[in-house]
Each structure stands twice: as structure tokens, then as C-alpha cells.
Write a structure and sequence with these properties.
This protein is of the alpha/beta class. It has nine helices and 14 strands. Helix content is about 40%, strand content about 25%. A hairpin with a 2-residue loop joins strand 9 and strand 10.
Length: about 300
């Protein structure tokens, strides 16, 4: 039987997207984690991770093994949670609004993990781009992109991601590579947004910031579809670096104007101050923060 501690450390490396970050996250020397994962690979007789000086990625068998490791880790945490919440059981209903552009597969994986840990909670998850009213429409949590409008609600930062402009080699060969922000106006763009979203990208950060317009080829509220359309040579797209990391490493997508890095975009969990941070809201937000990165990383590695 594989070493459970090694399996947990392997899962931590994947969640943290690297040995160094895993070492910081769990407070263990990087060398110890590396040695334990190497021992696990030797014990199993397979390579779980592909390593080089700059990148870390899962092998095909590593991807499958990671899913089982996460299940085992979740079960162990569930057993621990039974003890921790004996006197304060997490239960009741939880209604959550999530933007349509979020990966539904990713959210499904998150919710499955959450329900395994907290089986007494009843989830009501709605994908919507409407500006939902937390109290009036009965939502406990709304996941929202920043910047947020001032309100009496409480907003907790869930994560932030670095956006990057990308295009396929095929598109750039046919249409050329823009050398300046102004030249983007001559190119087809794939816009992630709603019917109200304008074909504008915010390039740069701080005092070196500019808003650039482009010719909208497609507008869609699915980040997965934006990535696929970019891979299929239909135009330039703005994606999170985490989402297209594998494509950049393989050369399937190329960065556009990397000398104009953009401000990270932020995602918040918003809840009503009247709720006084009910236990089920608190544990869901904690779980979302802890698990989102690992699920996003896994789905990205799986393509």
C-alpha cells in the first residue's frame, strides 16, 4: 500500500503548483517533500510528475493518481471534521450565485468535495451573470469579479489571477503579431463577457496603463470556449495565466505584448453583513479558497 503521508504531500505539491510553494504552504522543508514524492514514485514504479528547471506538470498516470489522492485526503479531512464539528455541526441550506463564465466542471468538483466534508449542508448553486440581491433573492453567497461597487455587504477575497493576452501561432502567422497596444485595434479579439461587455482590454498597470479597443470576433461567457477559440486560430484572447499555462509551455498559444503586464483580476465571495458570517458560509469560503487552486490546476493539466 502506498505511503499515505507521501500521497498527501504529492497532492499538496499539485495543489500548490510546485515544491517551493507547497513547502511554504505546509511549513515543511522542500527537500523533505521532494524526497517523499520521489520515494512514492519509486514505490509505485511510475513517474507522477514531469520536472524541469521552470515547469512542473502531471504525467497522465499522475493525473489519475492525483484524483485518488485528493479523494483519500478529503476522506481523512472528513473524518477529522466529524470530530471538530461534533459540538458545532455545519448544516442547513446554502444558496450560492456563481458567474456563468466559471468552469462548471471545476465548480462541480468543488461542490462534491464540500458535500463530502459537510454532508448535512444542502447546496443550491445557480450560475448567473445577474447582479443578484443577497437578501432580496435569498442568496447566502455571491461569487463576484472585482472591482466591486460600494455596498453594505461583506466581501472576502477568494483568489486573484494574472491575465495575459494570447494567440495561436496559426493566427499570428496569418495576421501578424501586434508590436504595440495600438496595433491591437487591427486584430480580431475573442471577448469573455456578457452582452454588456465592451471590446476593451486594460493593458499595463499602475501609471503605465491604457485601455485598448479591438475588433470583436466572438463574445462568449465561457472561459473554456474562449481558450478553445484562441487555439483554433480565431483571434487574440485574454485568459488567466493559470488557465493557459500548459498551452504556453507547449507553444500552442503565444503571449502577446508581454512587456505590458496587466493588473491581476480578483474574485470575491460576497455575503450580507446581516448574516454575521454564519458557520456554513464561513466553512464554504474557507473550502473554496483552499481547493480552488488545486482543482483549477488539475483541470488545466488535463486540458
Amino acid at each position: 500500500m502506498p505511503d499515505l503521508n507521501g500521497m498527501a504531500l504529492f497532492a499538496a505539491v499539485v495543489r500548490s503548483q510546485g515544491f517551493s510553494q507547497a513547502a511554504r504552504d505546509i511549513g515543511m522543508p522542500k527537500s523533505t517533500i521532494s524526497r517523499k514524492v520521489a520515494q512514492l514514485e519509486e514505490e509505485l514504479g511510475v513517474r507522477l510528475l514531469q520536472r524541469d528547471s521552470r515547469n512542473l506538470s502531471l504525467t497522465q498516470v499522475g493525473t489519475l493518481f492525483y484524483q485518488h489522492c485528493e479523494t483519500i485526503v478529503n476522506e481523512l479531512e472528513a473524518a477529522k471534521a466529524v470530530i471538530e464539528h461534533t459540538h458545532a455541526d455545519v448544516s442547513g441550506s446554502l444558496r450560492i450565485a456563481i458567474p456563468v463564465s466559471f468552469s462548471q466542471e471545476l465548480i462541480a468538483n468543488l461542490c462534491s468535495g464540500f458535500l463530502r466534508l459537510y454532508p448535512s449542508v444542502e447546496l443550491d448553486v445557480q450560475f448567473t451573470d445577474s447582479d443578484v440581491g443577497l437578501v432580496g433573492e435569498g442568496y447566502d453567497i455571491a461569487i463576484k469579479y472585482g472591482p466591486l461597487q460600494p455596498s453594505d455587504n461583506v466581501a472576502r477575497l477568494l483568489f486573484e489571477r494574472q491575465p495575459i493576452l494570447v494567440a495561436s501561432p496559426g493566427y499570428l502567422k496569418k495576421h501578424g503579431t501586434p508590436a504595440t497596444p495600438k496595433e491591437l485595434g487591427q486584430h480580431a479579439g475573442i471577448l469573455l463577457g456578457t452582452t454588456r461587455s465592451a471590446p476593451i482590454w486594460p493593458l499595463g498597470k499602475g501609471g503605465r496603463k491604457t485601455m485598448v479597443s479591438f475588433n470583436r470576433k466572438v463574445r462568449v461567457n465561457s472561459a473554456v470556449m474562449v481558450r478553445q477559440l484562441a487555439l483554433d486560430d480565431f483571434g487574440i484572447a485574454m485568459l488567466s495565466h493559470a488557465q493557459c499555462k500548459k498551452d504556453l509551455a507547449s507553444g500552442s498559444l503565444l503571449p502577446i505584448l508581454p512587456e505590458w503586464p496587466m493588473e491581476p483580476f480578483k474574485v470575491y465571495g460576497v455575503y450580507s453583513s446581516r448574516k454575521q458570517l454564519a458557520t456554513n458560509i464561513s466553512v464554504f469560503l474557507d473550502f473554496f479558497i483552499k481547493r480552488f487552486g488545486s482543482q483549477e490546476s488539475l483541470l488545466g493539466m488535463m486540458g
